[in-house]
Every structure is written in structure tokens, then in C-alpha cells.
Amino acid sequence: MSAPRIAQFKLVLLGESAVGKSSLLLRFARGVYEDNRESTIGAAFLAQNVRLEPDLVVRFEIWDTAGQERYKALAPMYYRNANAALVVFDLLSQESLARAQSWVRELRVQADDGIIIALVGNKLDLLNQLKAESPNSSGKIGISEDAKSYAAEAGLLYYECSAKTGENIEAVFKGVAEKMPINEYFSSQEEEQQHAVDLGASSSGCAC
Amino acid sequence: MSDSVELVWSRSAVYIHPTKNNKDNIAGYLSLVRPPDGEILISWVPESLIKLSKQDYESYVQVDLSLDGEVTQKNQVFVSKPPSMSVGSLARSSHAFSIKLSDLYSMQMREPSLGWWYGSILLFTKQAETLPVLFFHDDESEVEKRRTKTMQKKRDDWGGEFFMEKLENYVDIRPSTLEKGVYLINPSAQDTLAFAPPVTTSNEVSGPNSAKAATWGDLKWNIFEKLAQVTRYSRKASQSMFDRTPAPLRSMLNIPEVEQLGQDFDSARVFLAEWALGIVQDQEDFQRKNININLNTYDSHFDDFSIVAQSIERRNPVTLEEWESFFDENDGRLTVTAEEVKERIFHGGLEPQVRPKAWLFLLNVYPWDTSAVERASIIAEKRNEYYRLKRKWWENIDMQENDSFWKDQKNRIEKDVLRTDRNIPLFEQSETPHPDPDSRLAQSGANPHLEQMRDMLITYNEYNENLGYVQGMSDLLSPLYVVLQDDALAFAAFCGFMERMERNFMRSQEGMRDQLSTLGHLTNFMLPKLYSHLAKADSIHFFFFFRMILVWFKREFEWDDVLRLWEVLWTNYYSSQFHLFIALAILDLNKAYIIERLHYFDEILKFINELSMTLDLDTVLTRAEELFTKFKLALDLVNWQNNQSEDTKSQTEVTEDLRMLLSREIVDQREQARPPGATGG
Ligand SMILES: Nc1nc2c(ncn2[C@@H]2O[C@H](COP(=O)(O)OP(=O)(O)OP(=O)(O)O)[C@@H](O)[C@H]2O)c(=O)[nH]1
Ligand SMILES: [Mg+2]
């Protein structure tokens, strides 16, 4: 079998501090989870592949940003030219969902038009645990419903996952990978190659 | 023993530089010897010559090392008579010379400039002969190394000073009030009047246009003007003038006016010679070190700039024993200067046991010039202060329940404390359950140190109302708490640290922006090739240094190295902003790779991010010190160059932020009052 074709895209992680952006990325890219990892300052970078078909790989270049409010002004540097954004919130924090919504608004205005945005609720394990502890509770637990309906309204991909247990993590990245403009990526690549060939042909003169 | 002389004083690593080429430098011993007839001689003999006699060599070494080269009456040391004892004659082949003290007319002292040139001495005889210039390579001198180790070395002292001190035992040395650095030896009344007139009390400067200028002043200015023309001309025309030391002198003296002047007033000749030689020699030094005055070529020249006048070496950390030896046993006051202690810490850092003591000084919890009793009382005060501040919010139940800003900040602090340095044993997860299961900190079990961290940060949030807590601060506090292991002291130290770090956390980001922009200017100035590469890569905002500067490289080095780096930076030894030279050093160490391989901001950011935990601290510190040294001399050079040319257009501008890097005062940038409704950090 020949080597798979690789399409490369830029993805950025945004969301309030401590919702679990770094944990989520680490789970996805390295398969590990660590309680109480340090907060992110500035931004961190990782690259990770997602195999969509036996001969097709999407390679994500991922920027993990700092959620701290004070350094919000730096974010445009990281989402500039991004093909995808995961806007992460904590399934148990109403506030973090509000922050996520404001990120979505900012991306709509500032980022590339074609950017694919996924709203990702993290810490699903905690939500499940709470639900298990109060099975008969009639009141709603967490903010799943609000988030889901917001995502539908705003036309976002929506996922719930847990970096801690790893539940649903693959699905998030795979779902986003599938939305990537893969065909466009390859055709623009071909164009570039063609351009190079054309140049080569013209410079070497007519071979007839 | 007719052929031997008593060796009174000697000093190794005194060089002559016969040509511009460093390879031709000759190492030797400068010494004072007493022949049997009793009249002291100054002699300089090449080391190679001395080494011909094992016994002589041992004697020279012994005298050099005997506590600043002094020999007591009892253990007199004798050596062979230095060559060419005849007054003032030079043994051409070996360059050795010796002259009688009574033949010494004057001398000129030229202080070393760190990284720029070695300190040197010019000796002038009454016969107006020119002796080789003596260069003190103090970095190679065994005595200097010992003095540095035993903390006797002062910031600016150098070999020439010791020579002069010694000389003062035998002759009357009078500084010229007309020309700094020139000293007359046993001057006659006439000479004194001419060269060392009493300084007048009026502020009037004798200049060419000053009607009140003294006669000699007029003459002097006249000559200076002439000389200025000559040197300017020769700089452009050719190097031939500098080829041999006496040559420029001769050509100077051939100017008719000067010649006339010389005849009119004989001693003027010597004065002029001193002055002129000084200038010429300095220029030779510029050339010797192959530095072009064109700023654009600094980079390439610095690359092969191998001589730094004071060798840069890391030293062992200060031990507890050494630390204690700095203080008086009785009253606990420093017996050395704070400057010396800081120099020591800058170059070596501290052993772990010393840190709890030394950091309180470095972080301004108490001043260096206090007694043990005074320090104890300051500590008691700070302790009261901390508990008072803490009680204030602790007891304010209303605020805790209703103030949304406060609740928000507490939340943020707890989130961060849980994520700060948890791999350090002190902050480890505890198996014992937390007494209050509703506390956010409960997930880490009952670890009192996490509670302390939280309380200190909440207290700081209340104490510095304008700034409040901002993320990143927990990273700055944690090492202080781990080292001091005392909440009140750590809080006091943290407040001291924050004095200079407040600028990093401003809502407007002004302080961070300023530092990144200064780093940009500095890179442009020192590493122009790299800078233009970064410009092409859209990266001259230097954002990839954001994390390093925000928390002072806390995430780039291992824990122990962070402690070392911070104590070095706290000394403000060269600059209160030495951390920017650390950043510059990191760039410099990686510039080849960056220029060759990285062409986009993303790539550069990724690369710099990934340097984390791969950097060797000593290498970075040494490089940073070298870069600072070069920076300082480059500024000197620019100043010098700008002074040379009257044409303001051709002058090089150095931005104020770069000049500020020479300052050792911390940059005081404070947050404004918190606007209503603003959230915390
Ligand atoms: N229970 C649970 N805890 C999680 C999960 N993901 C993250 N956490 C915890 O949440 C805290 C914050 O996680 P991080 O990954 O550092 O958060 P972040 O969004 O990267 O935060 P910033 O870097 O400050 O923006 C960590 O202390 C984790 O222990 C999860 O899936 N389940
Ligand atoms: Mg993070």
C-alpha cells in the first residue's frame, strides 16, 4: 500500500482558564492525563494526526492558548489563519459557557470566514458522577441542555467529553477533521505543483 | 651577591603589546627592585626571560602572591639583576627595561574598561623617552583570582592601582588637575604650577573661548585643537601613523606650533606626549580588537571578538560558612560592602541553606546595612503586618459572601494554587481528607501549604488593591514560600519581588509591551542579522518571549535553576533588567538555527516554546554576561563616535530604552486604580 495522503490544518483551542484545554489536548496527542498540571502561559504547540481513511490522514497543528482573561489580547495571534477552533467549556460551570459564547462571537468577527468551530463541554466524568449521586433529582444538572441548544442555534459542532477518562476525545478531533476542506487542500497543492511544473517547462524552453 | 637585587614588589600578567596583533603580546612581570646602592628601580621583564632561572621565577611568583606583592623585612627575596640596568635604556630584543625612580617624570593611568580594553600605565622619564605601554591583564593574574575568591576584589580596582599604591611609599605622586589620569612624580615647583594648579573654586571651565583661562589652559586648548585635527586626519588617511608607538608622538611634535611650544616650555612636551599617546593607544585598542565603528557590522565583528578584558566565569555558590563570614559576629552587620556580596551572588548564586537568609536581603525585606537586632525587629513588624492584613479579609464575612469581585478572585486563586508546582514535595497531594469537604482545595486533601499559598495570594489581592491577583503571580510566589517556609516572610518577600514585577501584570499590558519592545531594540542593536531575519518572519513583536518574561523563565528551567537564576537577577548587579539579556542570550545561542531553519512566526514560537527544559543555565548566564559587556562597550563606542563627529546626521542614535538597560534601579511601572466593573486577572 502506498503512503497515505496527508492534509495539514491549523487548529486552535480557546476557552476559560481551567476548563481543561491542555488536559484535553494531552489526552488526544499523548494519551495521558495528569491532575493539576500547570496553567498555560502564552501558548503551547503540538501536532497530531487523525486517520480518516486508510490512505488519508489529517494532520493538525494545534495551538493551546492560555485561558486567562488578562492575556486575551494575545489570542488573535494564535487563531489567525486557523482552519478550526475548539471552544472548550466546563460542563459544570455556567460562567465558562458564557465565556465560550463570547469566544465564538469573537471568532465569527475576527477569524477566517471558513473556520470550523466546535463547542466542547469537558469534565463529562464529573457530570456523570454528579448524576449518579443524585439519580432521582428532577432539577437539571449541569448546563448540557443550554450548551447543546446554543450550539445548534449558532451552527457549531457540539461534543461532550472527558480528558480525565478519555471518553469521546477521539470523536471530537475526528469530527472536526471530517469537516476540514480536504479536497480544496489537495487541489491547491496540485495547483502549486502545476505552477512549479509550468515554470520549469517554460524556463527550459520548448522540447518539441 | 653583587649581581642580585632585592625584589620589593612584583606583579605577574603585565603585558606589552609590541604590535597590533594579540599573538605578539608579551607577558611579563612588573616589579620594584632595590639594588645594593639602594635606589629603587621600576623594571619590567618578560616572563620567558625570568623563567630561565628557576629560582628567580619562584621568587617573582612568591612576591607576586604574597598579599598584594609585599615582602616583609624579615623574608627579603633576591633575584638576578634585571637586564639593561642603564637608566632608561631599552633592551630592544627582549623589550625588558628598568628605570630609576628618580628618572621617572610622570605617568598616566588608563583604567580598564570591562570588555573593552585592559587597564594600562604609561611611564615617562625625564629624558622624555617612551617606554612600552604596560597592560595589566588582570584576568590572568593569580593574585587577582585569589582576591576575587576571598572577596577582597572591589568592583573597579585593577593592577595599576596597586602599583601606584606601592610607588607612593617611595615617591611623591601628584595628580594633574588639568588632565585626569596623569600623575606627576616628585614634581618641581614649576611643574606643579604648570600641571597641577590648585583647582579654582569658580565653576568656570577653561575652554578655548574662555577669557579667564589660565595661560597653560590656553596653550593646552590650542594643542588639543591641533591634535584633534591630526588624529581625525590620520584615522581617515592610513594606519601607518599607529604602527609604532613613538611615531605618532614624533609627528605630533613636528607640528611647528607644538615644536615652538616645546621649546618655550620644555615640560609641555612631556605633557603633550602623555596626552597624545593616550589617544593613539586607545585607537590602537579599537583596531586591535577589530571593531569597526560602523554599527551595522557590529554583529560580525562581535562574533570574532574573543577578548573580553575580564574573563567571564561562573563560580561556586556561596556556602553557609562563607555567608556567615560576611557578617560581624557581634552585631551581625555586614563587614564587606553590599556591592561585594551582590557581585559574589551574581557570579555564583547561593547554596540552598543560604537562601532563606540571603533572599530576605535581596528582596528588600530588610536593608543590607542593618544589625541582627534591627533585622529581628523588622521581621517582627512584617509578621504583625501580614497577620493584620490577613485578618482584615478573613473577618470580613460580608465581603466574602457578597462581593462578586472578591469571590471571583478567590476562585481564580484557588484554581491556580491547585495547579502551581504540585510536583514539589511541599505541595504534594495529601492522603488525609480536607477538614472542609466543600473547599475547592479539598480535592488535594489536607495540605496546609496550599492553604497558606491561597491566603498569601488573597492577602496580596487585598494589599495591592489596584493590581489585585493576576494569573502568573502564583508562579512567582511559590519558590519564595518553598524556600522561606514561613507565610509572613514569604509574603513580605513577595511584596518586594512584586515591586519590580508589577509591570508584567498591568491591565493595559503596557509593562509587557515595553519589555518586549526593548528586547526587540536590543536584538536589533546586538544581533542585527537575526533581527532582520525575524522581521522577515513577521516576528519582531517578540511575542514568543511572553512567557519567559512574564514569569521570569520559571517555565523554561528546572526548579533548582529557577532559584539560582532569580537570585542572580535580584542582585541588579549589572542592570535591573538583566532578564532581557538572559532572553538575548537564549536568542544568541540559537540564532544560527533560527536563521537557517525557521521562516514563520508559528515555527519560531514553537521552537522557542520547546526550548523549555533544554537550556543549560550556566551557559545562558555566561553568554548573557558577555552580551551585557559587549552591549556596554558598544554604547561607549557609540558615545565616543558621536562625540567625534560634529555632524549630527552621521551620529548613531541609541534609543532611551536601551540606555536605561545600564541602570540598576528597578523600573517603576504601576497599575492604575481598578476601574469600576473591571474583572480580575
Ligand atoms: N474531573 C476532570 N477534571 C479535569 C478534566 N480536564 C481537566 N481537568 C482539571 O481541570 C484543571 C484545569 O485543566 P487544564 O487542562 O490545565 O485547563 P486549561 O483550560 O488548559 O487552563 P489554562 O491553561 O489556564 O487556560 C486541571 O487541574 C485538571 O485536573 C476532566 O476531564 N475531568
Ligand atoms: Mg492550559
UniProtKB/TrEMBL annotation, chain A:
InterPro entries tied to this protein: P-loop_NTPase, Small_GTP-bd, Small_GTPase
On whether Cell division is a keyword of this UniProt record, the answer is no
| An annotated Gene Ontology molecular function | GTP binding
- State the UniProt keywords alphabetically: Nucleotide-binding
Taxonomically, which superkingdom?
Eukaryota
Pfam families linked: Ras
Name this protein carries in UniProt: Rab family GTPase
What is the scientific name of the source organism? Starmerella bacillaris (Yeast)
Automatic annotation (TrEMBL), chain B:
Could you tell me which InterPro entries the record lists for this protein?
Answer: Rab-GAP-TBC_dom, Rab-GAP_TBC_sf, SGSM1/2_RBD
Q: Which GO terms describe its cellular component?
A: cytoplasm
Could you confirm whether the keyword Transferase appears in this record?
Answer: no
Keywords (alphabetical) are: GTPase activation
This protein is called GTPase-activating protein GYP7
Record's signal peptide: none
Q: Transmembrane as a keyword?
A: no
Instruction: Please name the SUPFAM superfamilies in this protein's record.
Output: Ypt/Rab-GAP domain of gyp1p (SSF47923)
Q: Where does the Rab-GAP TBC domain start and stop, copy by copy?
A: 349-573
Q: Which GO terms describe its molecular function?
A: GTPase activator activity
Q: Name one Pfam family in it.
A: RabGAP-TBC
